[in-house]
Amino acid sequence: MNLTDLSAARLSRMLASESVTSAAIMAAFLDRIEAQNPAINAIVSLRPRSELMNEAEAADRAPPRGWLHGLPFAVKDLVETRGLRTTHGSPLFADHVPDNDDLLAARLRAAGAIFIGKTNTPEWGHGSHSFNPVHGTTLNPYALSRSAGGSSGGAAAALAARLVPVADGSDAMGSLRNPSAFCNVYGFRPSWGLIPPDAGDDTFMATLATDGPMARTVEDLAHLLGVLAGPNPQTPFGRPGQSFTEHLDTPIRGKRIGWLADWGGAYQIEPGILACCEAALEVIEGLGAIVEPVPAPFPAEELWHSWITLRAMLNAGSKRTLYDDPAKRALIKPETLWEIEQGRGLTASEVYQASKTRSQWYATAARLFQRFDALALPSAQVWPFPAGWRHPTSINGHALDTYHRWMEVVVPVSLAGLPCLGMPAGFGDNGLPMGVQLFGPTGGDSAVLGLGQAYHQATDWPSRRPPEF
């Protein structure tokens, strides 16, 4: 039995029954990281083996602390981790070692996780391709010449290559869903507020991005979501924590799913992707659910304009002190500079209109969920692209006007803050992975995970290991 092939839930149960030790699990994953990580560059800032083995042995002697007790964990490099280098992919923070944990890291530690290092990400998490000047590029385990996606590309690649049992990610513009699709794993973007932000910056207006779990099984997603969820008294709009594993096996017969496809032709999508996603939905139909096409429910261009306005406004505010220092500004990637400069030129009226559009879309989606239990979209508009690119510049011959327009298909979920499961949809004729988004109404996280669990039990796409590994 290869311990690195097992789910986090199974490893956790084995540790609880004392049929395996944390030290044995740690040694197995560190051996695999040593052998495989150089090829993909998924895990960065790896801690010394001797320190990690000592901590694993200490975990074996200690009483259990939580679901992650004694398991190795690599935290996304956008999360501040006490005593562990956190670069945000930026040369401005290349040597930054935080004195304190962010809330997410603190909750992982409280559940017993042993931090082995970080997972790679694009600079500031901007762009769905994980490269940066500090740690380099993360490559796709299924095709080493291709992108692993982003911004949680390091986490997705590490999961696919069996370098970690479970992982955290974050998602503003598909940063959980895109790499999950590119690397044949699962990523879950929860209802906004279920996993709260840290206090310290704006927490009333900054409601576009959220952290979330990533895994090779839906059961692991549910367990990790339970660890991370629950209100932060210092921030608004929190949602109560709960168990997300109790209703995973709810039958899905009769559930209604609306297929939005390419949003009535508004989204350019590379050949083969829609067919791949439709094959995945046919599996769900075969389990007794009802899938039907849905015409575009809202003007895509209005959603896009709302999204880039609000995103730019938030980036201009949060990055202002860096931008105002010429020396620091010179070290910021062009895509982030674009966000900041777009935001600095906005008027209050433009921001208000963007928020109004967002509100109108939320209401429209709520009406759709009176007819459907869930809606579906592709997780990406392009197949994993060459790792040497900064980003795709066209789709099907149509030029793209921004660095992130090729990920427009994720915007409807992000803008409304809806719970969304990024599921593997299988492989195209090109041998590359793809994914499908399955999303539900606000607060419907458990129901979406239940749909995903039925699909996973019927497919288990992540068990198809990368050929290079």
Describe what you observe in this structure.
The protein is of the alpha+beta class and 469 residues long. The protein has one domain (3-463): Amidase signature (AS) domain (Amidase signature (AS) enzymes, Alpha-Beta Complex). It contains 15 helices and 17 strands. The protein has helices at residues 8-16, 22-40, 49-61, 103-110, 153-160, 177-183, 218-228, 273-286, 300-318, 320-324, 326-329, 334-344, 348-368, 411-416, 445-459, and strands at 43-44, 72-76, 114-119, 131-132, 136-137, 139-140, 143-147, 167-171, 186-189, 210-215, 256-259, 290-293, 374-378, 394-395, 398-399, 420-427, 433-439. The chain has an eight-stranded mixed sheet, with helices on both faces. Strands 1-3-2 form a three-stranded mixed sheet. Helix 2 runs antiparallel to helix 3 and helix 9 crosses helix 13 (348-368). It starts with 7 loop residues before the first helix and ends in a 10-residue tail after the last helix.
Distance between the termini: 17 Å
Oligomer designation: single chain
Strand content: 15-25%
Cα-atom radius of gyration: 21 Å
Which architecture per CATH? Alpha-Beta Complex
Going by CATH, the homologous superfamily would be Amidase signature (AS) domain
Helix residue percentage? 25-40%
Low-confidence stretches: none
Major beta sheet, strand line-up: 8-10-9-16-17-13-11-12
Number of strands: 17
Mean pLDDT: 97
* CATH class wording: Alpha Beta
Number of domains: 1
* Separate helix tally: 15
Kindly identify the CATH topology: Amidase signature (AS) enzymes
3D shape: globular
**Helix/sheet category:** alpha+beta
Largest sheet: 8 strands, mixed
